[in-house]
């Protein structure tokens, strides 16, 4: 009786409204939605586009190598000891195959001068360290693209790129699940400027083909969070209060970090040769260090540096809630911390204004 009333009401509404013919059901506005815009061109329209896409391509190439490398470096027994079985290993293998497709997509957009694969250097010696590195690398790969997508001149290219980056977002979450971390403890995924992504990626490229185009984004001095929370347990798989077995989801009885935690930071001065063939140099145009910036969710949150001594300092993990009381903490998950010379107010779309104020970093902070 109830549903027939609703249906009757629906017929009443339909018959009394003068509905436009379907061909006119196109709200005004939008860009590139009709033939007058010409056929879409899935290419870079500017140097900004080209350099952004080529950076993303370098990220896809390392992921392809990294996933294969991890599968080859460790034995099935070592994976089993970390709780990862043959099905899990095939999922990593499939992720590598996804990277083949992502690299082809971006190479096709860039044409003959697109970057080719490099030789890489990796910071892990155990399966858990490998999974943790994958989880961090895919996060900056993802955030690095979100940061520039809305700024690309080529919307057609942006459209295809987001169809690959949403796949990478799923990879990131799966690597978190492989570590027993809560899969997505945040409401929004952060975006970061290209210089942030390149600063994080560049140390792992050891040598690249001579014809690879120079990457024009800045590399900031390295930042080390010397007491970074770690999702990696001791070599045996159990640690009081922490279940680090792979799981779709689980609460940790003890969170990895909490607001008010004292965080120790140490950074380098600019001017060090770095990245492949030592062909880049770290740089900064910032003044003296004053703040740590915490980039997570939709926000860039500053905390003052304390105990500044040369290139070391400490600061406190902030506790802001994203939209105020009863909402999620801004700081959680796998996120970004950098040292700045000011607490310049920036929001999601103008975050790259921060670049000229970065003293060092970012580093990945494992908040949860
Ligand atoms: C076609 O798209 C352009 C913008 O790309 C817009 O200015 C124009 O109004 C659109 N035409 C129609 C008929 O929707
Ligand atoms: C990668 O490393 C191999 C082995 O050291 C070397 O032969 C090759 O030239 C390197 N390739 C590039 C592109 O740097
Ligand atoms: C980097 O070094 C490798 C190995 O020596 C070499 O093959 C490659 O051409 C060099 N690349 C650049 C960009 O100089
Ligand atoms: C960062 O600091 C920790 C603690 O001092 C140290 O073990 C680690 O090697 C440092 N990492 C880098 C990349 O310097
Ligand atoms: C696991 O490692 C912790 C920390 O090193 C140690 O205290 C504990 O005894 C170990 N447990 C087992 C079962 O080996
Ligand atoms: C997980 O944590 C949430 C938030 O603290 C809590 O409401 C929920 O009951 C917990 N669930 C389990 C199964 O522990
Ligand atoms: C992060 O989220 C997890 C899961 O909801 C929660 O248990 C933890 O307390 C949060 N961490 C912080 C720093 O708020
Ligand atoms: C500052 O750092 C230097 C070098 O590491 C150390 O010798 C000195 O004791 C530190 N000063 C303070 C006030 O901690
Ligand atoms: C985080 O960013 C959102 C979107 O810009 C904003 O509405 C919110 O107030 C910010 N929260 C904090 C704690 O700064
Ligand atoms: C960034 O955008 C916000 C508005 O969202 C504005 O208030 C702020 O001044 C801008 N920051 C800079 C450095 O332009």
Give an overview in words.
The protein has 368 residues and is an alpha+beta fold. It is built from 7 helices and 14 strands. The model has no long low-confidence stretch (mean pLDDT 92). It folds into 2 domains: 47-207, Ferritin, core subunit, four-helix bundle (Ferritin, Up-down Bundle); 223-235 and 254-366. The protein has helices at 2-16, 47-73, 76-81, 86-110, 127-148, 155-178, 194-201; strands spanning 119-120, 205-207, 223-225, 238-239, 242-243, 262-267, 273-274, 280-281, 291-296, 299-304, 306-309, 312-316, 334-340, 358-366. It has a 4-stranded antiparallel beta sheet, with no helix packed on it. A 4-stranded antiparallel beta sheet has the order 10-9-13-14. One 2-acetamido-2-deoxy-beta-D-glucopyranose is lined by residues 224, 226.
Give the helix/strand class.
Answer: alpha+beta
Assign the CATH architecture of the largest domain: Up-down Bundle
The domain tally reads 2
Range of strand content: 15-25%
According to CATH, the homologous superfamily of the largest domain is Ferritin, core subunit, four-helix bundle
Question: What is the level 1 CATH name of the largest domain?
Answer: Mainly Alpha
Mean pLDDT reading: 92
Largest sheet: 4 strands, antiparallel
**What string gives the helices and strands in order?**
HHHHEHHHEEEEEEEEEEEEE
Low-pLDDT windows of residues: none
Helix content: 25-40%
How far apart lie the N and C ends? 50 Å
> What would the principal axes of the Cα set say about the shape?
globular
CATH topology grouping of the largest domain: Ferritin
Radius of gyration equals: 23 Å
Please state the oligomeric state of the protein chains shown: single chain
